[in-house]
Every structure is written in C-alpha cells, then in structure tokens.
Design brief:
Keywords: Membrane, Protein transport, Transport. One of its GO terms (biological process) is intracellular protein transport. It is a peripheral membrane protein. The chain has about 475 residues and is mostly helical. The protein has helices at about 1-5, 15-20, 30-45, 55, 75-85, 95-100, 135-150, 170-190, 195-205, 210-220, 225, 240-295, 300-305, 310-365, 365-385, 395-405, 405-410, 415-435, 435-470; strands at about 105-110, 120-125, 130-135. A hairpin with a 4-residue loop joins strand 2 (about 120-125) and strand 3 (about 130-135). The protein starts with a helix and ends in a 7-residue tail after the last helix. Residues about 385-390 have low confidence and may be disordered.
C-alpha cells in the first residue's frame, strides 16, 4: 500500500527509493508518524528540495507540507480488498463502495444488424476497464451461463427472457435494455465476480462472435471452490451457528422481498396514475377546445337572449392551453416516477430475487457441484496427457493449474459444503449492503412527489383567474 501511495506522487524512481530508504520501510511496517514524515518528504521532493533526515529534524512549522497524490480511489478499493483478505468472513462494504467498483452503461445501437434476420445490438461501456464494446443479447446469455457455472454459491441475477409480452417492439426492447443494464451493473459490482477473467473478457474483447469465443475459452474453467485459496480452510470460516443464522436471515430477507415487491407495485401504480392523469387533462383540454369551436344552437331562438354560454366559450381556448401544460407536467411526473423510483426498486428486486435463487440452489446440496468438479478434474488430466492445454488464455491455464495443485482439497465434499456456507454468509452480507438502496427510494419518492405536486399546483393556480373570468358574475354564489 505504501509503495502504491509513493507511485501516486509521480516522482522519479530515484526519489521514491530515497524516501523508502529514509523511512526504513523494508522492515515490513510503518508507524503513523513515519507515514506522515514520508508524505512530507514526498511534498518536499515535489517542491524540488534535496531529501534528507535533516529536513524533518529541522522542521519547525505546525504542520508538514501536503503532497499532491491525485486520485486515491483505487487505493481505497485496494485497502478494502486487503481488509477482506485479512477478515474473509466480513464484507465490510456499503452500497456506495459497491458502486465505486465499476460504472457500466448499456445503450441501444440505433441501427439493426443482419441481412435478413434483424437483431438488436447494445453498446456496453465500463468505467473500470475504460472500454466500449458492442454486444448482443446472446452474448449476455453466454456470460450468464459461464458465471453461473463458475460461481454456483454467489448472487447471479436473472437475465431478462428473450421475448417478453409487454406490448410494442419498442417497449420490449427498452425494457430489456434496462434489465440488461441492471444485470450487468450488479455483476460488475460484485466484489468477487468482478475480479474474474470471464467478466474482464466480456468487457474488453473486441473481436467477432463473442458468444462462441467466450464459451470456447472459458467453458473448462472450474468453479470457484476448485481454485479458491480459502477452500483448504473453509471450515475455519464457518461460525458454529451458521445454519441457524442462515435460516433466520433467509426468512428475514423473504419478508423484505415481499414488502419491497408490494412497494414496487405501488410505485408502478403511481407512475401509471400520473400518466392517466396527464391523458385525462389532455382530453379535458380537447373537449373544451371542441366546445369553444362549435356554433350550433347559439341563435337567439335557442338562447332567448341569454349570453352566458357565449361569454364562457371565450375562455375555453385559454383554459385548454393551460390544461395542455398540466398534461405535459403530469406526463413528466410519470417519467420521473418510472426512471427514478421504479428503476431503483427494480435493481433492489433483482438482487433480492437473486438471493432467493441462490438459496434454492444451495438447498439442492453440494453433491451435484462436487460431481461436476470431479468430472472436470478427470477431463483436465486427460487433456494434459494429450497436450491440448496449448494456445488457451493464460488466465485459464493458471486457474486449471491451481485446480491441480489442490486436488486433495477438491476431493473433500465436507470442505465444499463448508465453503458454500461461507459464500452464503458473504452473499447475505452483500444483500444487506444493497438494502441501503431502499433508503434512496424513500428519499426519491418524497422529492419526486414534492416536485410533481408543486408543478401541478402552479399550473392550476395559473388557470384559476381565467376560470373566474369565464364564469358569470354571480356564479360563485
């Protein structure tokens, strides 16, 4: 960590080595005072001063100079990663920490591809990898299948179905785009999955036919337990009361899921009612325009000299225009409720449903996973004998080598069972980190409703004087 901190200063290697020697960092640890002195030396070096212990001894100011170290966000992530390695049973992350792991976007590519059978493409970007690639729905399916095989004891949200009966093609495509964005966001922000070469390949490969290429390279990669450094001491990671706590947490999260689902239905209803309100106001304006334009039945024979209706019609055009503004405000409110409220709740629902699916997979037991891993081991040995490991991706080979090194660990069903419980413990903590989203939802709900009702009230207040002018003088009585 200290080494990376020094590199952030942008100083030449000679200066960095000098600071390293002055602080005697080779001894393996650094006190707080030594760290502050090292940072002061960095600041002085950036000022062009010659470095020596005398600079520190002769310093008489209140505070050491502050160095320029640039963006330290990656060091914060490294620190949390190191903490998780030291305390593998404690996630130690909040929702904001998860969001900082990566920011992805999934946008629709305007033109459709294919000569005869058209298909939709998405432009996928990753802030972490600094990439922008094009992907099809089937590419996501290939990634999903590989991740599910690689991480059977982790939260893998569901992909949207290939076809959804939700109305027009445009609506379906947009709904699926949003779902794919949520799915990829959750996967890329998973503290374990986001470190895997499979995900990196998906974000960085820029060749053709990725759905087959990614399967070809990674289909033989073993599951997480097979290659994990924690597998051999999995029993140490599982507290004695894990089964009881897991059962309690599962019931707790089930209740949360039911309530959040109901809240989601309510917010969907809010958006639909705002849209219906906007449509009603538009229709009301249209009817007033129609009434203002008709001239039948206004003869003196019909009215008997009563001019009230004619006077009222004069304001209908003005009122209809105001109602048009009211309609647009209501439609905008519906969009806000959908985009800011429902989208956040959908993200939370995805992770809650993923936990439900994970519990269902875990209930089936680890024997099936164990048999699959054993079959891959036999297949790998056979392939090694035939010399077919050549030409594959380096990271894949490293994973397979790791699998061979801990063959005795893999053979233990008991260790696999313990490891699966450890993963369930960590994924339960991950769900609780995502529950912070619900606080955001409640806050957004309040702010969106305040804004929406304030805008509608403002338009109604603008309509009121016109209404008063249209009414007969004694109508209010």
């Amino acid at each position: 960590m200290f080494t990376r901190l020094l590199v952030k200063s942008g100083l030449p290697q000679q200066k960095l080595s000098q600071i390293w020697e002055l602080m005697e960092a080779k001894q393996g640890s650094l006190s707080r005072t030594s760290l502050y002195k090292a940072l002061a030396l960095v600041a002085w070096a950036q000022q062009g001063k010659e470095l020596s212990v005398k600079l520190l001894d002769n310093f008489s100011g209140d505070e050491y100079p502050v160095p320029s170290l640039g963006d330290l966000s990656d060091l914060r992530q490294l620190q949390k990663q190191r903490q998780r390695q030291c305390h593998p049973g404690h996630l130690g992350m909040r929702y904001g920490d998860l969001c900082r792991l990566d920011t992805v976007t999934v946008h629709l590519v305007p033109e459709k591809k294919g000569l005869f059978l058209k298909h939709v493409e998405y432009q996928v970007t990753s802030k972490r990898f600094g990439t922008k690639v094009r992907r099809r729905y089937n590419d996501f399916v290939s990634l999903y299948d590989l991740l599910l095989g690689r991480f059977p004891y982790r939260l893998i949200p569901r992909l949207p179905p290939k076809k959804m009966n939700i109305g027009s093609d445009t609506q379906f495509i947009e709904e699926r785009r949003q779902w794919l964005w949520r799915w990829l966001s959750l996967v890329s922000r998973h503290p374990v999955i986001n470190q895997d070469p499979i995900l990196q390949f998906f974000f960085t490969y820029d060749g053709d036919d990725i759905q087959h290429k990614i399967r070809e390279i990674f289909r033989r990669v073993p599951d997480e337990f097979t290659t994990s450094e924690l597998a051999s001491r999995a029993k140490e990671l599982v507290p004695p009361d894990t089964l009881t706590e897991l059962a309690n947490s599962r019931e707790h999260i089930r209740l949360i899921t039911n309530s959040v689902s109901r809240v989601k239905q309510i917010t969907d209803g809010l958006a639909q009612r705002s849209q219906a309100y906007g449509s009603d106001m538009a229709e009301l304006g249209s009817q007033l325009t129609l009434l203002a334009s008709e001239n039948n039945g206004t003869s003196s024979w019909a009215t008997g000299g009563n001019q009230i209706w004619s006077e009222m019609k004069k304001g209908f055009h003005t009122i209809s225009k105001e109602l048009g503004i009211l309609s647009s405000k209501a439609m905008a409110q519906s969009v806000r409720e959908e985009a800011e409220l429902c989208a956040q709740l959908n993200l939370l629902m995805d992770i809650l449903f993923a936990y439900r699916d994970l519990c269902a997979r875990h209930e089936k037991g680890v024997m099936q996973d164990h048999q699959k891993a054993h079959a891959k081991m036999l297949s790998l040995k056979k392939r090694q004998m035939q010399g077919v490991l050549r030409g594959e991706v380096e990271s894949v080979v490293a994973l397979e080598d790791r699998m061979l090194q801990q063959e005795s660990v893999i053979a233990s069903v008991e260790l696999r069972s313990a490891y699966s419980l450890h993963c369930m413990h960590m994924e339960t903590q991950l769900v609780h980190a995502h529950l912070e989203l619900f606080a955001t939802v409640i806050s957004v709900l309040v702010s969106v409703q305040i804004r929406g009702h304030a805008e509608l009230a403002e338009v109604w207040r603008a309509i009121q004087p016109t209404i008063s002018k249209c009414l007969p003088e004694d109508a209010e009585q």
